[in-house]
Design goal:
Helix content is 23%, strand content 28%. By secondary structure, the protein is an alpha/beta fold. The strands form three sheets. Strands 10-12-11-13-14-19-18-17-15-16 form a ten-stranded mixed sheet, sandwiched between helices. A seven-stranded mixed β-barrel has the order 1-2-8-6-4-3-9.
Length: 419
Amino acid sequence: MTRGRPPLLPPALLALADGTVYRGHAFGARAVGVGEVCFNTSITGYQEILTDPSYAGQMVVMTYTQIGNVGVNPEDEESPRPFLQGFIVKEIFHEPSNWRSAESLDAYMRRHGIPGVAGIDTRALVRRIRDAGAQVGVLSTNPGRQDAAQLVEQARRDPGLEGRDLAAEVTCDAPYDWAQGRWQGIEGQVPRAGRPGPVFKLVALDYGIKRNIVRMLHDHGFDVTVVPAHTGADEILALEPDAIFLSNGPGDPAAVRGTQAVVRRLAESKPIFGICLGHQILGLALGGRTLKLKFGHHGGNQPGQDLATGKVAICAENHGYAVDADSLSEAGEPVEITHVNLNDGTVEGLAHKTRPLFSVQYHPEASPGPHDAAYFFGRFREMVARHAAGEAVTGAQIAAGGGASRSNPAAAPPTDAPK
């Protein structure tokens, strides 16, 4: 029995395009959600998962069995609202127990119109996705829409994610400045180092940006202006930035209209750092291709190896597409692969050999973690500082662990950066 569950919960039904049907208990909004079903292997951080815009167009299955036990709070939101289509769990807690909790997960999802289902065999569902690959599902928590055959047919008719510009659906409406750092924690903890100087001006393209990314950029000495995904290169350059950031985001990178040409133009004169979808867009802008993965990488336990050092970081990831390694060499750009996923060998990082450009597939800013890869923000600051000082620094030099310039101590990363 679901712990803390009120009596007489309405039924919920999840129907997959392959005809499989799962029946459980409804929570969250009474609605019908349609999206690609994926699974996330994180044990903590369900609120960050819910509010990650990268899940637009998808429904998330949590492999961890007990969800909702710490509630939700405003500080842990990664965006203004959830963008996913549905949430699928084994056991939902309706009565959270945590001093930071401001609301139950059930109430939060009802407020934002997101349907959820609990009480199904999530292990069986995850095995089906792993074996057959990602597929569209329909989740109905509407008591009047529980006909399995009709919902299966609706799932089969849905076109899925490929070719859909989801960045346009989640990006901000207008530019804005960001001036907030990371949560300072509780009284008595070891204080963090202050922001390093000098401060550099950064423009971040919002393909579905997470708040902890801009918090980390702020703390590493950047004044951040976030602009909509389809902002033109001339408009961005008119802001006179010292560097450009390409954010995470949802869906098919090849479908984000117009952005490849914009990034190519910006790469002619500005240092660039990309994360997740931003990494894929940089790969496309450099002449590469992207491919859809069987079921993607979603969770906080992905092994990413730095090829320069051989070290492995446990990483948070959330993506269903990857850069095709062979396409980068075929394009003729001097780009090297810097990181790979040890589970399947897919590209996890790339760097340019003659320009100050690099990117990573995973999330070094991950909140609540893991934090193994947080050093990338220090690397980015070093690259920007050295470029601003007139050095011909390249992404490949930074990826290889090239130290800060002796003539430019401001290039050194903040003292809290992992060594």
